[in-house]
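--- STAGE predict ---
source: upstream dedup step, 1 unique chain passed
mode: sequence only
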Amino acid sequence: MTSSQIERVDAIPILVTWLQHMAVSEHIDTHWTPHREWEGLSYGQLALLFLTFVLHERDHRLSVLADWVAAHHATLTALTGWTITPADVTDDRLGRLLEVLGQDTSQITAVQQALGRHVIRVYALPTSVARIDTTSFNVTHAANEAGQPERALLQFGYSKDQRPDLLQFKQTLATLDPGGVPLLSATVAGNAADDPLYVPTWQELVSLLGHADFLLVADSKAAALSTRATIAGGGGRYLVPMPLTGEVPTLLRDWVLNPPLTPEPVVLPPTQDEPTKPREVGLGFEVVRRSEGQTTTGQAVAWDERWLVVQSTAYAKRQQQALTTRVQRAENELARFRVKKGERKDTVQERVDTLLKRHDAAEWLTVTVEETAIVTRRSARRGRPSATTPVEEVTTYQVQVSVQRNEEAIAEAQRLAGWRIYVSNSAVEDVSLVNAMALYREEWTVEHGYHRWKGGWLPALPLFLHIEQRIRGLMLLLLIALQVLSLIEWQARRSLAAEQASLAGLVPGNPKMATAQPTAERLLRMFTNLHLLIHQVGDQRLGQVLEALTPLQQRILHLLCLPATLYSFQARLSTTTTVAEG
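--- STAGE serialize ---
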């Protein structure tokens, strides 16, 4: 009996091979043992299929996996060598897998650390700089939905997406520079504070890397004194911006207006896409201070800190322009301000205060509201008055509004624009002021992962899961999927840098545009619409990719250190047993 069928292959061979290099299924099977009545694919094998589906389809709905596996059955069995039946990939089994993965947070951390060590070793990732950040994920679940106990994961809290009306959960993410490869992530309640999350994540990073001698770059929420004391006391290093709270605004004002040192230009090295253009981004100087504090466990620590006082030229221009615009708009509205008939001073003052608050201009404009009482005498009777007509006094009030610019405050604000304080306990020989600014300006690398989760290639939203354990399990798998994209990107860019070359043909409509920093998404899109033709002749299956790989596709495989034979299916299909679907 002879039959033929066609399947879309696309980038599935790359994704499956990459997940196999990362030993994803082996690590999951090491940490989770299936129930004795669980038959068919193991937890790790099912997770690998689901991850391939998520990366290929950009979808995490559990109910869609079975149809997708059926549409790519020959491709998947040839790549994995597994016997895959429809019963292996039902949404019930996948839901059970997510529940198992999300039950124990200590197990989640353990598998993340094991997988992280494996990835660092296999891909020779540098471990000198790490980043930590947090974000929130809003969901449209009902607030009073069943299954949400008092300490539920989904809670109302401060929304970083400006949706305080929606329930949310929070996610931490720790990555390695320069590729932004994610290593650790934790799913916490939506009403949890961000500040206490940094120390545990840093400690887990130390355990994963096996040492504390790396520079942690984070945002201002990691600048809490106890966090800095814990990292310094544990032999670690950090670079964080200071929030404008406590003594920081006063110190910043004093240092900028009366600098203890002459500010020096901050000139960053050129980018790979523009290697001949150094970037002068601002000015800066540093002050060394002795800091004292307590760790999160109450231990007293004293250490030296470098306070880096830096101005960003671009940020200063934006702030100065915003201040000028804000003051001008407030002045224009005050020029049109009219006192209503019969209005008293208190009412006018309230309207003026509201106007200044709306434009945030109370500090820059001094508005004086004065009220003058005018007393007039008039006849108490109608008609022509006489010498004996009684007279009454009538008091009316005239309210005047005057506006004066606070030129001294405006000039000071313009001078302070763009300045910020960063702190680090790293020696200047290890991280100079210029290097510190270059490192902090790469903070987008960790944000890039969040963008992929929130609306990019790996969308966690909209979230269709309600059970807390399933949500945690899904986010664990999405972390692994994010590792795949980051590693593909890192490997391609590292190969191009080693060759001092760039890659063209990735941008639709602009085939000549070349870049030395291609994204994983564009690389994978280049393999869209590749098809596998399968011939079934008796018990033997023969397969061939219909389209020949283009030079660009072959070039991408070379950059990713993958063999050109990756898309040769004939030998693998001929040794694969056909599995009836039903």
